[in-house]
Structure formats: structure tokens, C-alpha cells
């Protein structure tokens, strides 16, 4: 099988926001505790954060971290997580039926984020709380000094403001599982009032209003329209959450998940345009895909949920620690291609989550940390997708899928930054390799693929070995035309300079 990727560099479009390569740390399961933070681990620093995990986080190349939830934020009192640790309360976390010790809070997370080069994107609780508490948190984080809240921050060891710019106005408020779940009108009103008050306090904040929890929600579409009707003149982004899983017997549709994400993003972009036009709003509104990933939710319902919702309130239980395969990594790669291709509309995106909980990084208490297969396409894109996007024309055969119909066997996108080009591609075929050619001036400076070792797309990584990892691949260049062969179910990253 062969494919031709045509790149019209003169038509390079939007610039990729570095914030598209964001991540997410929620107080859920073992993401924080026994994840980034484990004071007794042999690599822990003086603040209790694991050094081995920190190194892997740095290698991932993520740019911004959403915190502290997720569903968790909808019952969270941020004040519990500041001040002397020994005075912090233990609380029930009703979102994940766990006990929250509050050993980690805003100060610790912000210092850790700074140490790994991540901007903090803070979510406020619009489930059990409202505009007043959100504004108090903002005053605590961003006001220089001279008020009770800003001086409390200084007393707690942080003299300079945190200067947090990006704020999520609650989380998934459309979902009946959400603490403080609301109708679109109820949420739209509270989000608008919170936004107004937050802007009075700090006009420079960027605000993300919560869109639907997923594309299949019965309220999808009307939720976005209603919420934006209340808030379009007050917010900078609307969120999209998108998780994909393999349904039994339908690997082909799973491999085509990004076709679903493309359509989801186009629909939300259309709604933004409609509401802006109706309301005569000139300020741009980006899409913040602030939770996305492969997540086997069937497993969540069958294994994690019964295990946790037993009446116990464990500390940092093992929740949704999906073990990712090479196949999952290729799907993650295709979702990245979709996000980059929509750089004109996607202003931010956060791979959910960072460590242990549906994460590219896993670790064991007192033991090793390792990279899941999904780590690698993310790191490629985060390190090399720079500058303007070139959405290619692709001549290739199609594959039949039950969910999305006929889809192209190859998905691809390129970015160009001065004379540095990066091409990302996936081969969605379960059976056929594809010989792919593209034309771009310059010399190939690196090329690698990720696929199942010995064709085993179900291969995984673990504490002792990472058999699913990128390997170099030969690219034949004739003049400016470069040709490589993508194995079945593979991800490729090629750089030309
Ligand atoms: O990332 C796991 C959970 O998925 C988040 O807490 C929630 O926002 C979403 O439903």
C-alpha cells in the first residue's frame, strides 16, 4: 500500500499554541499521592516530590498543568490545602469516595510545577461553592499584598503572587455525576457571575467556561449554546472533554477515534461562531480540550467503581490505572494530529492525566517509574510541533469502520517553524504497512516510528522494561521527496531541516 502526503507550505495556517501540549493533575487515585508526591521514596526531594517521576515529566515536554480537578474540584475547599501541613484537615472526597489528606495543596503544586516548567491552570469549585470563593482564591493567588487573603499567602511562604493566568470555571457541570450538577441556565448564570467578579479582581485572567463532558451527552450542543449565551462576552475559552475507548470487537473504529474528535471540534467551533455572531461579540473564544485521552471506561464501571464505592474512604486508592498498549499510543498520536490540525480553534489541550491515573507515566510506591506507550507520541508532538500548521492533502486508500464509515488509512499533519518542518503521521491499518511519500525542502534530521514490537499491538510497558518505544526508521530522500514505510498500527515523527 502507498500514500502521498502533499504539503502546501505556502498555505501554512494557524500557529500551534504551546498550550496544546498541556497535562492534568487531579487529586484522584494515585496521581498526586504516590504519584508526583511520595515523601518516603528514595528519589524524593525535600518537599516530598519524586525525582524519578519529575525527570519523566520533564522529558514529556508538557507546557501547562490543569489542577486540582476534575470532578474533585467540585467539592474542594482550597483553603484546606494551604498553611501549616499539620493543621490541614482530612476530608472526605465525595467525587472519588476517598480521603483527602491535604498534604499537597496550591503552594506545593505550584512550586513543583515551576520546577518542571509547567504553567498552572487552576480550576475553581462551582459545584458546592460559587463566585465569592472563586474570587477569594484569585485574590489569594494573584493580589500582591495588603489584604487579608494576599497577606495570608505571604504568611504561608509565598511572597510574590502566583500570577496564575488561566482559570477553569468549574468542571463538567452538565454531568449528573458532578457534585453540584446544574442545568445549562443555572451553570451559565453562575459562570457569568464568577467570571465578572474574577475579572473585577484581575482583568488579565483567561477564563475557560465548561462545555459538555463529552460529545454523547444528551445535552451536547444546547449546553454549549446556552452556556455561551450567558458568558460569551466574559470568557476566552470553552472546554471540550473527549475520551475514547476500544469497544469489544471494533478495533477499526477505535483506530479512527480522531475522526470523531475532528467532528466534535468542528461542531463546537460552529456553535462558538453562531453565538458570537448572534451576540455581536468580537473577542475570540478558543476551544480548551482540557481533558482528552484513551480511557477504558468500561473497566472503570466494572472494576474501579465497585472497588471504591464500597463504603470505605481509602487514601489514594488505585483508580483507573489503565495499562496502555502500542495500539492506544497510536490512537493518542492520531488525537494529537487532530488537535494540531485544529490549531486555528484549539487554544489549549490537556492530556488527562499525568501520573498513574489514565496517565503516560506510571510508578509504584517505593519502586520504579516508567513510561507508558502513550508517553512517546505526546513527547514527540510537545517537543517538535512548532510554528505554523500545514494540514496536508493525503492520497491514500480508506478503511471501513462500523462507527465512522470509510476513513483514510493515514492521518497526518505537519508544522513549519522557519525552515524546520515536523511531520506526524499514523497508519490506522491493522494489517497493511504503507509506503508514504512527502515533499519538503531540506534534509531529514530524524525519523522514528512507534509500533507494536514484533507486530504485537497489545504490547505494554512496565517497571522492568519499556518494549514499546520509538525506533529509528530509514527515510529515502530523492531531492525534496522523502519516503518511509509505516508498519500497520504505527505512529511516526519525521523532522526535516
Ligand atoms: O480524568 C478523570 C475524570 O474524567 C475527571 O475527574 C472528570 O472531569 C472526567 O469525567
Automatic annotation (TrEMBL):
Pfam families: Alpha-L-AF_C (PF06964), ASD1_dom (PF22848). It catalyses: Hydrolysis of terminal non-reducing alpha-L-arabinofuranoside residues in alpha-L-arabinosides. Residues 290-490 form the Alpha-L-arabinofuranosidase C-terminal domain. It is an enzyme of class 3 (hydrolase). The keyword Hydrolase applies. It comes from the Bacteria. Its EC number is 3.2.1.55. Keywords: Carbohydrate metabolism, Glycosidase, Hydrolase. Homohexamer; trimer of dimers. Belongs to the glycosyl hydrolase 51 family. This is non-reducing end alpha-L-arabinofuranosidase. It comes from Microbacterium schleiferi.
Amino acid at each position: 500500500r502507498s500514500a502521498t502526503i502533499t504539503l502546501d507550505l505556502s498555505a501554512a495556517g494557524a500557529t500551534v499554541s504551546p498550550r496544546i501540549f498541556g497535562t492534568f493533575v487531579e487529586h484522584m487515585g494515585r496521581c498526586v499521592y504516590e504519584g508526583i508526591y511520595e515523601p518516603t521514596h528514595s528519589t524524593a526531594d525535600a518537599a516530598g516530590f519524586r525525582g524519578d517521576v519529575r525527570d519523566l515529566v520533564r522529558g514529556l515536554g508538557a507546557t501547562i498543568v490543569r489542577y486540582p480537578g476534575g470532578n474533585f474540584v467540585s467539592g474542594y475547599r482550597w483553603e484546606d490545602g494551604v498553611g501549616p501541613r499539620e493543621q490541614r484537615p482530612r476530608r472526605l472526597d465525595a467525587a472519588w469516595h476517598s480521603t483527602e489528606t491535604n498534604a499537597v495543596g496550591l503552594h506545593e503544586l505550584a512550586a513543583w510545577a515551576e520546577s518542571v516548567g509547567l504553567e498552572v491552570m487552576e480550576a475553581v469549585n462551582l459545584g458546592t461553592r460559587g463566585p465569592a470563593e472563586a474570587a477569594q482564591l484569585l485574590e489569594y493567588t494573584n493580589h500582591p499584598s495588603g489584604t487579608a487573603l494576599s497577606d495570608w499567602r505571604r504568611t504561608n511562604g509565598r511572597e510574590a503572587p502566583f500570577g496564575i493566568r488561566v482559570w477553569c470555571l468549574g468542571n463538567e457541570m452538565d454531568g449528573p455525576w458532578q457534585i453540584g450538577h446544574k442545568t445549562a441556565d443555572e451553570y451559565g448564570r453562575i459562570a457569568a457571575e464568577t467570571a465578572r467578579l474574577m475579572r473585577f479582581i484581575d482583568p488579565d485572567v483567561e477564563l475557560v467556561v465548561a462545555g459538555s463532558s463529552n460529545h454523547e451527552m444528551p445535552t451536547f450542543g444546547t449546553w454549549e449554546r446556552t452556556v455561551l449565551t450567558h458568558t460569551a462576552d466574559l470568557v476566552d475559552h470553552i472546554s471540550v472533554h473527549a475520551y475514547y475507548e476500544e469497544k469489544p470487537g471494533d478495533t477499526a473504529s477505535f483506530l479512527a477515534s480522531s475522526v470523531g474528535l475532528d467532528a466534535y471540534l468542528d461542531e463546537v467551533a460552529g456553535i462558538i461562531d453562531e453565538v458570537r455572531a448572534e451576540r455581536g461579540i468580537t473577542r475570540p473564544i478558543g476551544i480548551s480540550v482540557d481533558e482528552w485521552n484513551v480511557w477504558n471506561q468500561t473497566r472503570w464501571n466494572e472494576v474501579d467503581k465497585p472497588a471504591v464505592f464500597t463504603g470505605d474512604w481509602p487514601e489514594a486508592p488505585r483508580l483507573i490505572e489503565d495499562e496502555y498498549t502500542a495500539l492506544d499510543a497510536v490512537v493518542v498520536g492520531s488525537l494529537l494530529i487532530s488537535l494540531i490540525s485544529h490549531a486555528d480553534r484549539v487554544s489549549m489541550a490537556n492530556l488527562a492525566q499525568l501520573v498513574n491515573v489514565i496517565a503516560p507515566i506510571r510508578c509504584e510506591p517505593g519502586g520504579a517509574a516508567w513510561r507508558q506507550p502513550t508517553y512517546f507520541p505526546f513527547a514527540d508532538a510537545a517537543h517538535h510541533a512548532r510554528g505554523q500548521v500545514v494540514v496536508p492533502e493525503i492520497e491514500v486508500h480508506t478503511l471501513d469502520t462500523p462507527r465512522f464509515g470509510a476513513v483514510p488509512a493515514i492521518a497526518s499533519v505537519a508544522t513549519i517553524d522557519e525552515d524546520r518542518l515536523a511531520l506526524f503521521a499514523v497508519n490506522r491499518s491493522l494489517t497493511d504497512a504503507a509506503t508514504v511519500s512527502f515533499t519538503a525542502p531540506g534534509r531529514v534530521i530524524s525519523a522514528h516510528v512507534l509500533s507494536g514490537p514484533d507486530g504485537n499491538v497489545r504490547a505494554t510497558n512496565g517497571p522492568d522494561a519499556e518494549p514499546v518505544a520509538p525506533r529509528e526508521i530509514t527515510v529515502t530522500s530523492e531531492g525534496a521527496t522523502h519516503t518511509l514505510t509505516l508498519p500497520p498500527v504505527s505512529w511516526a515523527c519525521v523532522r526535516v531541516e
